[in-house]
C-alpha cells in the first residue's frame, strides 16, 4: 500500500524536480558553488517535496495548508535559484528552460492541491 503522499501529483512532480537540480549542482557546477548556491538550490528543492509529505501526514486542515504553503514558498525559491544559476552561466539555456518547465508544472499541481484543500475547509 503506497503512502498517502505517493498518490499526489504535486508530490510526484516535486520529487522529480528535486532530483535534477541535485544531480546538476553536484556533478557540473563549480566546486565552490556546490556549497553555496548549489546547497541552497538542493535544500529548497528538497523542502518542496518534504513539506508536501509533512502536510499529507497532518490531521488538521490548517496544519496541512501551512505545510503546503511552505512548499509553495520553497518552490518559488527554487525558481530563483535556477534564474541565478543561469545568470552565472552554470546552466545552459536548455537546462534552464527544462527546469523552469518542471517548476511551473510542480507549481500548477501544488496550487491545485492547495486550492482543493482550501475549498474543502471554507
Written overview of the protein:
The chain is mostly helical. The chain has one domain (4-120): Up-down Bundle (de novo design (two linked rop proteins)). 81% of the residues lie in helices and 0% in strands. It contains five helices and no strands. It is elongated, with a radius of gyration of 15 Å. It starts with 8 loop residues before the first helix and ends with a helix. The model has no long low-confidence stretch (mean pLDDT 92).
Quick recap:
The protein is mainly alpha-helical and 122 residues long. The chain has helices at residues 9-27, 31-34, 37-57, 61-87, 93-120.
Architecture blueprint of SSEs:
Elements: H1 9-27, H2 31-34, H3 37-57, H4 61-87, H5 93-120
**How would you state the average pLDDT, rounded?**
92
Distance between the amino and carboxyl termini: 31 Å
Spans with pLDDT under 50 lasting ≥5 residues? none
Secondary-structure element pattern, one letter each: HHHHH
Largest sheet: none
The level 1 CATH classification is Mainly Alpha
Properties at a glance:
mainly alpha; de novo design (two linked rop proteins)
